[in-house]
């Protein structure tokens, strides 16, 4: 699976940011690549706000497409997430089905009071539904 990553252009990055380079580098690597690209396309720069604002232009950044391997742990996590979603959907649809069945019974069986004989089907006090 291909993924775009952003890295600092170290030949220019270090001389500009000096001692702050490591924290600015970490901030851009943790940022959304598409957000960085969009900011540079719209404003000509991407601003990293840490203890102060650092302006990054396109010449300070390198965008690379890399092949990302999906580990077994990620696959298991994705399958568990899918299983959880499907289980919740099943429970939701089952609840809706039961609710509809209960409404049908309620609509068809309307009594003004409890039947003294205990036999609700032959109750003479039954209202028409």
Structure summarized in a few sentences:
The chain is α+β, with helices and mostly antiparallel strands. The chain contains four helices and four strands; from the N terminus they run βαααβββα.
β-strand number:
4
How many angstroms separate the termini?
61 Å
Report the sheet with the most strands, covering strand number, pairing sense and barrel closure.
Answer: 2 strands, antiparallel
| Strand content range | 15-25%
Global Rg: 32 Å
Shape: elongated
Q: Level of helix content?
A: 40-55%
Mean pLDDT: 80
Spatial ordering of strands, largest sheet: 1-4
Number of helical stretches of at least 4 residues: 4
Poorly predicted ranges? none
Structural class: alpha+beta
Helix and strand sequence: EHHHEEEH
Account of the 3D structure:
With 129 residues, the protein is α+β, with helices and mostly antiparallel strands. Helix content is 51%, strand content 17%. The protein contains 4 helices and 4 strands, in the order E-H-H-H-E-E-E-H. It has a two-stranded antiparallel sheet with strand order 1-4. A two-stranded antiparallel ribbon has the order 2-3. Strand 2 and strand 3 form a beta hairpin. The radius of gyration is 32 Å and the shape is elongated.
């Amino acid at each position: 699976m291909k993924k775009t990553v952003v890295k600092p252009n170290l030949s220019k990055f270090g001389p500009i940011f000096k001692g702050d380079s490591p924290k600015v580098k970490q901030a851009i690597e943790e940022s959304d690549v598409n957000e960085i690209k969009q900011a540079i396309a719209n404003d000509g720069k991407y601003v990293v706000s840490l203890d102060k604002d650092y302006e990054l232009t396109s010449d300070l950044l390198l965008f690379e497409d890399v092949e990302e391997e999906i580990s077994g742990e990620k696959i298991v996590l994705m399958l568990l997430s899918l299983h959880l979603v499907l289980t919740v959907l099943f429970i939701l649809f089952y609840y809706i089905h039961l609710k509809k069945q209960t409404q049908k019974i309620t609509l068809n069986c309307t009594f003004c009071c409890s039947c003294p004989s205990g036999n609700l089907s032959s109750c003479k006090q039954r209202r028409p539904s």
